[in-house]
Amino acid sequence: MTHSDRPLVAYFSMEIALHPKMPTYSGGLGILAGDTLRAAADLGVAMIGVTLLQRQGYFAQSLDSSGWQYENPMPWEIGQYCSELPVQVDVEIENRPIHVRAWKYEIQSCRGNRLPVILLDTDIAGNSDWDRRLTDQLYGGDQHYRLCQEIILGLGGVRILRALGHQDITRFHMNEGHAALLGLELLDESAQAAGRSQFNSQDVQNVRHSCNFTTHTPVPAGHDRFPLDLVQHTLARSDIFENHEVFCCEGELNMTYLALNLSHYVNGVARKHGEVSRKMLVPRDQYHHYEIDHITNGVHLETWAAPALASLFDHYLPGWREDNSSLRSALSIPGEDIWKAHQAAKQKLIDQVNASSGTGFDINTFTLGFARRATAYKRANLLFHDPARLKNLARQVRNIQVVFAGKAHPHDEQGKHLIQEIFQQKDSMLPEVKVVYLENYDWELARLLTSGVDVWLNTPLPPLEASGTSGMKAALNGVPSLSVLDGWWIEGCVEGVTGWAIDHVGESYHNDQERLAHDANCLYETLENSVIPLFYQQRDAWLKIMAHAIALNASYFNTQRMVQQYVLKAYYD
Ligand SMILES: *Cc1c(COP(=O)(O)O)cnc(C)c1O
């Protein structure tokens, strides 16, 4: 097929991580969106990304001396990365037109292809001051602000694509429910094409055929729901609720159900998450039946390989960027070369830790890494459940070092307290356990951390981790995971080969607190009996684990394989 014959996919996401200096993402969802588009560009899949400009970014995190998080805006140099497009459209909110313009960012693939991403912007003359701020802040403001943003993304996104001449889009991919209002625009288009002023079930069938939806979390707060009166007021359209098949769910507009109702293909982001979503997202009426598949997430390997590891792969497995499955042969790389590359990546992290905290980290000491959004279910404090036991364990094996990082959502008080708890515990762990909490976890810090620690720790409360991708970045860099069996790790863990499970067969718990104690106990046992002795005393066996993490996990948990599965299951069928 020539390029112009290929089906064109429009990929809509509220956040997309496009460049380390563009703060247009908050965490895993945005990184995944960026990695997806980067892999699509490498594969030559015809795709165009759509998101909001986020002039003020998500936020820059600073921690005061008590470990309390403060959020600062992150304005960025838009013109340095993006070029303005000569199009403008209007979107109606509360019966007034809001002008929307667009910027383009171009992703460059490993083979030189370019993939365009459209960033929508309402900061233009003719809009009121309030409307000009609508594309400023990712996940900022209240429910009303959020709904306005989703109207801009969904309706504005489709209109901008049409204004750019894209009548040729065969699939609209909603990455999370935030983008689901694109379906409303498509319904209106379909009705209009048939000469009707209002959409009907034929239009719903048409739209379903061209949409697919990826759901990303089993956590209820992760699913947007808006009260109907807010929606009526903001969208200023009563007609949509007359068609209760699509829009109305129990007195609210639920963006997840809207996306489900308008998609012919729906997936969760790991095998287990598919199962959990099938149980959780059940039809609420007799009209619907949802089939929810799964496509397990991945990471874009070229983006996440530390320079030392990338050189190593270039030397032993040339072509790994173009064909990620080449890393399957990582067992042929001499162990001492993997070790040298790892030590180079570790040195970079240690330099950064010591420069920013003066903690005196040392390259020969076993180092654990834990970085993720600070929120209750991720249980960042599991490692410190029994501080005396951890100190004792460290004393027996020499010392250990732990690096933490992660932002809490500005409204997540409990998450902020978790950061503070770790922050305040760290001094009491000295001298056996050196702990540092690095500020402002972002793309660049994630690269340093996932390649520079010896083991990547993950302790979510199952089944709440949909997939997780940071452990995949670690595996690529030869860093094994020590993780609760949840999300991708159920598929990626081969015990003692690619890492270790925090698991205890046959035990049951009556509540989350009991589970926490069980998991902590298992974590300490695994560190004490398996992980740390191997690291300090059996270097050859350790190097085999590093090689297996690359060979078994990086060769599979990448977005090249993932996008190919989307092509097969969602885009080209
Ligand atoms: C990869 C990444 C994430 C997602 O990691 P999880 O394993 O899902 O927690 C979040 N934030 C940043 C900055 C990342 O690079």
β-strand amount: 15-25%
Low-pLDDT runs of 5+ residues are none
CATH architecture of the largest domain: 3-Layer(aba) Sandwich
Oligomer: single chain
Number of domains: 2
The CATH superfamily title of the largest domain: Glycogen Phosphorylase B
Sheet/helix structural class? alpha/beta
Protein name: glycogen phosphorylase
GO molecular function, one term: pyridoxal phosphate binding
Function: Phosphorylase is an important allosteric enzyme in carbohydrate metabolism. Enzymes from different sources differ in their regulatory mechanisms and in their natural substrates. However, all known phosphorylases share catalytic and structural properties.
Catalytic activity: [(1->4)-alpha-D-glucosyl](n) + phosphate = [(1->4)-alpha-D-glucosyl](n-1) + alpha-D-glucose 1-phosphate
Description of the structure:
It is globular, with a radius of gyration of 24 Å. α4 (143-163) packs across α7. The chain is an alpha/beta fold. β15, α14 and β16 (433-438) form a beta-alpha-beta unit. The chain has helices spanning 28-43, 78-81, 129-132, 143-163, 182-193, 201-210, 228-235, 255-261, 271-280, 301-304, 307-316, 335-357, 387-396, 413-425, 443-452, 470-476, 489-492, 512-537, 539-554, 559-571, and strands at 8-13, 47-52, 60-63, 69-72, 83-93, 96-108, 114-121, 169-175, 211-214, 225-227, 252-254, 265-268, 292-294, 366-371, 400-405, 433-438, 455-458, 481-484, 499-502. The mean pLDDT is 94. The chain is 40% helix and 18% strand. The protein has 2 domains: 3-262, 3-Layer(aba) Sandwich (Rossmann fold); 301-557, Rossmann fold (3-Layer(aba) Sandwich), CATH 3.40.50. It starts with 7 loop residues before the first strand and ends with a helix. Strands 5-6-7-2-1-8-9-12-13 form a 9-stranded mixed beta sheet. Strands 16-15-14-17-18-19 form a 6-stranded parallel beta sheet, sandwiched between helices. A two-stranded antiparallel sheet has the order 3-4. Pyridoxal-5'-phosphate binds next to α1, α15 and α16. This is glycogen phosphorylase. One of its GO terms (biological process) is carbohydrate metabolic process. Its EC number is 2.4.1.1. Keywords: Carbohydrate metabolism, Glycosyltransferase, Pyridoxal phosphate, Transferase. It catalyses: [(1->4)-alpha-D-glucosyl](n) + phosphate = [(1->4)-alpha-D-glucosyl](n-1) + alpha-D-glucose 1-phosphate.
